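Working notes for the structural subgroup meeting. M.R. asked for a predicted model of this chain before we commit to crystallization trials. I am recording the input and output together here so anyone reviewing the notebook later can reproduce the run.

Input as submitted:
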Amino acid sequence: MIRPILTEIGIFLIPFAVYALFLVATRSGVFASSSWPVHLVAKLVLGSLLLVVISFVLLAQFSGAPPNSTYIPAHIENGKLVPGVEK
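Returned structure, recorded in token form:
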């Protein structure tokens, strides 16, 4: 469960990292508060949220079992646990 959460946090941080790299490339002060005005940070947050929503949609669309498949849950046969399968 921790991997999907860290993936989404990483996706959220991408616009901030790209802007920080831009500041480094232009030799601006990365840690200067004048390089991070409120309106720009708000735009970065909106872009980050948009990326996270898009990643959730893509995850829901392209992961999991194919449509109309049948899930057979884990069960016990002859005293042994048989894992669940998609058919």
